[in-house]
Amino acid sequence: MMVRLRGFFVVMSLVLVLGAAVVFVPVAGASTPVAVWHMDEPAGSTMNDAVDSHDGSLQNVQTGVSGFQGTGYRFNGSSSVVVVPASGDFNPGNANFSFVVHVNFTTVPSAAVVDYDLLRGPTQGAYKMEIVARNNRTKAKALCFFQGSTGKASLVAGPNLADGRWHTLECRKTSNTIYLLVDGAVFTKSASVGSLTNTGPVSLGAKSYRGGGDWYQGLMDEVSISIN
What we know:
Radius of gyration: 16 Å
Distance between the termini: 13 Å
Order of helices and strands: EEEEEEEEEEEEEEEEEEEE
Shape: globular
Helix content: under 10%
Number of domains: 1
């Protein structure tokens, strides 16, 4: 798990949830952030990358709202999206790969919206983090999805997140496992998806193609992508 502390990132141990048991699992190797978006811009149409030049373009996103740390963004659920241009840094291949998003929302995705895209790779969906509706659309849960050269896998787990509180979500892929972290609790699934190839833009809060879709309604802050 990667935690921001005064501008630095600290790799923490993972708490693995296996039924009723809780096992502490050390992270193998340090993650290297290739993009970190603090979302602290008070105004404007650009989301600044704190570690490189992966700036994003804001479309109908409200800036300067109360965030997880400092200020964050509000997505309106119908037309808000951030698009980050394609980069080789978002094309991890066989390396371990992870991304972190902080969210705060109260509305479960409707049947019309289907689900919320929080972070999405290219149009083919090589990797993404979503909020999906469960229990007759009374609960909202986190989902991680990876599609590589040899297969695809998804994992839905954790509590209802539509409670108006900030939640820290992370999706992680290794050579033989995918992980979903929800506020420090770790859920796993054995899966070998192969090499991840991303040649398209990264989008936050919605799809970035075919007119958008899967519109997120809520707050977002402190998003990062890492490779190790």
